[in-house]
Amino acid sequence: MDINEIRALDHEKKKRIGILMGILCALYWGVWYVPGYAIYVSPLVADVYPNMVNAGMSDDVAGILQAVFLTAVNAVACALLLFIWNAGLGKTRELKRTLVQVKSVTKYYILAGICGACAVSGTYIAALFLSPGFAAIAGLLYPIIGTIMSVLYLKQKVTKRAYLAVVVLLAGGITLYSGSILAGGTESANPLLGCIGGLMAAVGWGFEGVVAGKALDLTEPDIGLHLRFIFEGIFWVIVLLIVACTGLPIFATMGWLFDPTTFLMVLLIGFSFAWCYVTWYKSFPMIGVARGQAIGSLYAACGVIFLSIFLGPEAALGYTEDTMMLIVGSTIAGLLICLVGSFLLATENAEDVASLREAS
User: Fold this and answer.
1) What pLDDT score was predicted for residue 114?
2) What does the pLDDT read at residue 360?
């Protein structure tokens, strides 16, 4: 569906499709945390850490480089899979036409790629230095940042009900992880780096939504998100090449990419994150950046659920026998609060959802 077809839809259809895209985004995003965390046991990623330590790096720097390496793998995998996706849709010519429009469109996707690079590397740092559950929840501030910037920069309208829904979703996310914080169940050699990673995720995704929202007024979502991943992939390849030029063996584990199990995990990471972005970007023209981000923030709840299913609740939530009641209780309460926030957005009047821009 191109931008002209989106504009031709009536308000009610835009609302329904936009909400559906936001929910699908949350589901794909939540699933992404499972292979995204499981791949840490693969030599492709796991061996990066000892290689960096043996090369003279400190534990913290080695961990950060490990997260950066995995972020680069994630970006390149998404860019390649989205090329197949757009080729299947017959949009490769549109990709070329959009790419050369640097001043009007492409510059925004370059910025979106940089913001996304900050966010994804931040969430991997948070997962490494704290826990996958914290990484899934830490970015929940991003709808607040996205809402503020969409009003100030994009001049998009946000109703009181939508503001309330964003606050409720944020409260739900905080509640989800409050049990672990109160119980002191998070063990990390450097929790500060984990918190910084979470903040990077929130700020990066918040600003990316706003920048992408600006560009999506002029181009198709499928083309836009592909450009975003192309530019993020280029950014990380340049970063890794610079690291390699310093003599660090950052590419020493690349041979493991051809291991069937590792390749499958990379494929799952690429598919889940690429589809997450397809639906995320499609929701913005339908219901606005603030609402799209708010519904997408259900990813935190979905992430906790999927991590608990595939890794086990103890590994996903990080509880012990003594702290199980507190942590599991706060998780269930947080999920219920998140559902209330989503209900507030889903039942918002279609005319209000359609009023995306103030009259100039």
Assistant:
1) 93
2) 32
Question: Could you count the other beta carbons within 10 Å of the beta carbon of residue 41?
Answer: 12
Residue ranges of the domains in the chain?
3-354
Is the per-residue pLDDT at 85 higher than 90? no
How far apart (Å, rounded) are the C-alpha atoms in residues 24 and 345?
15
Q: Is 57 left (phi over 0), alpha (psi -120 to 50) or beta?
A: beta
3-state SS assignment for residue 91: coil
Please tell me the distance from the alpha carbon of residue 174 to that of residue 138, in angstroms, as a whole number. 8
Q: Residue for token digits 């230095």?
A: 129
For the chain, give the percent of residues with pLDDT over 90: 27
> Which residue type does 81 have?
L
| H or E element that contains 244 | helix 221-245
2 pLDDT above the threshold of 70: no
Phi-psi region of 156 (alpha: psi -120 to 50; beta: other; left: phi over 0): beta
What tokens appear for 315 in the block? 């590994």
* Interval 150-172: pLDDT, tens: 777 767 677 788 778 778 877 88
CB-based burial, 257-266: b 16+ in 10 Å, e otherwise:
eeeeebeebb
Any bridge partners for residue 28, and if so which?
none
H or E element in which residue 80 lies? helix 59-88
Long-range contacts of 40-43 (CB under 8 A, 24+ apart): 40/70, 40/127, 40/128, 42/256, 42/259, 42/261, 42/262, 42/265, 43/253, 43/256, 43/259, 43/262
Give tens-digit pLDDT for 170-209: 788 778 767 766 765 455 567 778 888 888 988 898 888 8
Question: Which residues, including other chains, have CB under 8 Å from residue 91's CB and lie 6 or more apart?
Answer: 220, 222, 223
- Tell me the three state secondary structure of residue 2: coil
Are 194 and 180 contacting, i.e. CB atoms less than 8 angstroms apart?
no
Residue with structure tokens 């010519």?
93
CB environment 301-313: b (16+ within 10 A), e (fewer): bbbbbbbbeebeb
| pLDDT tens-place string over residues 104-146 | 778 888 998 999 999 999 988 887 887 666 666 666 677 777 7
